[in-house]
Design brief:
It is built from 18 helices and nine strands. It has helices at about 10-15, 25-40, 55-60, 65-75, 85-95, 110-115, 135-140, 160-170, 175, 185-200, 200-215, 220-230, 230-250, 255-265, 270-285, 285-295, 300-310, 315-320, and strands spanning about 5, 20-25, 40-45, 65, 75-80, 105, 125-130, 150-155, 180. The structure holds NADPH dihydro-nicotinamide-adenine-dinucleotide phosphate (NDP) and magnesium ion (2 copies). NADPH dihydro-nicotinamide-adenine-dinucleotide phosphate binds near residues 29, 53 and 83. It is an enzyme of class 1 (oxidoreductase). It holds the Pfam family KARI_N.
Length: about 325
Amino acid sequence: MAELFYDDDADLSIIQGRKVAVIGYGSQGHAHALSLRDSGVDVRVGLHEGSKSKAKAEEQGLRVVTPAEAAAEADVIMVLIPDPIQAQVYEESIKDNLKDGDALFFAHGFNVRFGFIKPPAGVDVALVAPKGPGHLVRRQYEEGRGVPAIAAVEQDATGNAFQLALSYAKAIGGTRAGVIKTTFTEETETDLFGEQAVLCGGTSALVKAGFETLVEAGYQPEIAYFECLHELKLIVDLMYEGGLEKMRWSVSETAEWGDYVTGPRIITDATKAEMKKVLTEIQDGTFAKNWMDEYHGGLKKYNEYKTQDSEHLLETTGKELRKLMSWVDNDEA
Ligand code: NDP
Ligand code: MG
Ligand code: MG
């Protein structure tokens, strides 16, 4: 069973006794910086020249300096910028400002797990990752609650790295909900696998294939859109609330029977064999290397895929149909 930690297991005064730099002020960065500050922690935000989020951070009462200045001032440095640029910012602004006893923190293990960032031996290296987007992390904190988080230590130079990570997690509300102990390897590999095989990749491909099958058989795209994409939210909400059981309790018996007999014909042993190959390529670093090559090579294929899918009948149909849905929060109309 997973090891869980709550408020009583964490000592807030540890992080209150440190100087924290939050590098980046995006989804996670704003939530961490504001909640650390509200928890009585000495925090500064490190942002690059020409940063779009600088004005917002300052408006919200935070002191903004360059990433290098923030890293030099602080003894806990939390890196909250996009994963593909972290190694470059680390080389340029953080590395030379690390002293023995400092702590380098992340919210995702990607760069450390795959060796793009190699922190020096005298530094604690840990991970505190809320299991939710930044705006939810911040809102829950403000409401006196918290989003569950995971924490891990990759390198324990001081012997106190995990207590420091728990203290940090407490300051952003994580231990109010519960913090699960993990490792950089487990967090990184399961995160990549989940988003590729199930959450993003698997789901997108399933929705597209179902939609195409109906449209190719002569059904109207609008009807196919409702059946294969729109209604997915209802199903996922039920799973989120009560697992597969609540979903199956809520749908008709006919839908439930179809679930049992047809699901395994769609996701077959061959699909699972391919999932295992995907996992192997994540574990051996192939995926990470290919993605970094693509990113730093100008995102050519990435942009091709993006354009292709934005022109797909599923997307153009959805764009029109969503105009009929006054309750759907979108900025397309
Ligand atoms: P964002 O994409 O929201 O980060 C954007 C921030 O990074 C902005 O402040 C941006 O500046 C800044 N930035 C961009 N380039 C640079 C640079 N060269 N130097 C300094 N700052 C720069 O990141 P997320 O919050 O999504 O992700 C941060 C980390 O958290 C990642 O490791 C991610 O995997 C992890 N994570 C994210 C979650 C999420 O919900 N998004 C959930 C859990 C973990 P500006 O725009 O002002 O120019
Ligand atoms: Mg991810
Ligand atoms: Mg139906």
